[in-house]
Amino acid sequence: MLRAVCFDFGDTLVSTRLDWSRIHPAMLDGLQAALEPHLPHLDYRRLRRDFLFLRRMGKIRAEQTLVEAPATDSLARALMLQGVGPVPAPVLQQGVDGFFAPEEAEYSLVAGIPEALARLRVMGVKLAVISNATCGVLIRRALERRMLLPFLAEVVVSAEHGRCKPEPSIFRYALERLGASAAQAAMVGDRLPTDIAGARAVGMRAVLVDFFGDNTSRSPSAARPDALARTPAELMVVLKAWMA
């Protein structure tokens, strides 16, 4: 009996397929605008370069070790390179919020997802998000502004949990918060190495979503999902069958 469903965030609930060449400069401008009232004498050209470099290195380490590198940590390290610190946590968060605001504003809902979440809630299924992201505030703010947060019992973000998908502990933590066993839960996501492999490793069923029509190529060694859904309507057919 299916009692809980966990969703990935990007390209599962919302589209994160953005014009990064346009958005990245605005993100760096947002970082500077948020920090300047607190740190007016910084070399912001250097800060932009250092912050992006440290974020890239953090992403590489996270992929290798499955230990997340929060954006606030990368910003604190970038500031330390200019001899600035320790900086209060609220100021670091303001800087990160300013950095992510242009990105978050561009997210668009996947058509049919709000209706699917609403139906699952009415059917008594507990819902959660499990997201690999360097900022939990970003994920919750995006969910709230798109009116998805009320459907969710839990939002688990790697920046706060400390570990990244496919590390089993982040899935087990979400299941514990939901009060469901792995056998009673399913994971829905668009990435085989993280969403599908991680869920299958802890005993959850897993649905690979291909909402953009380009996620069907798989290597022979890739994790195998229990089902494939190309639309939220197809996803609901799968989940309702598992609830029977």
What structural category do the secondary elements indicate?
A: alpha/beta
Mean pLDDT over all positions: 96
Shape summary = elongated
Q: Output the CATH class name of the largest domain.
A: Alpha Beta
Strand order of the largest sheet: 5-4-1-6-7-8
State the domain count: 2
Helix content: 40-55%
CATH homologous superfamily classification of the largest domain: HAD superfamily/HAD-like
Q: Strand share of the residues? A: 5-15%
Number of helices: 10
Distance between the termini: 7 Å
Task: Enumerate the spans where pLDDT stays under 50 for 5 or more consecutive residues.
Answer: none
The total of beta strands comes to: 8
Secondary-structure arrangement, i.e. CATH architecture of the largest domain: 3-Layer(aba) Sandwich
**Rg, nearest Å:** 19 Å
The fold-level CATH name of the largest domain is: Rossmann fold
Largest sheet: 6 strands, parallel
User: What pattern of helices and strands is seen along the backbone?
Assistant: EEHHHHEHEHEHHEHEEH
Structure description:
This protein is an alpha/beta fold. The chain folds into two domains: 4-16 and 108-243, HAD superfamily/HAD-like (Rossmann fold); 20-106. It is built from ten helices and eight strands. The chain has a six-stranded parallel beta sheet with strand order 5-4-1-6-7-8, with helices on both faces. The protein has a two-stranded antiparallel sheet with strand order 2-3. Helix 1 (20-35) runs antiparallel to helix 4.
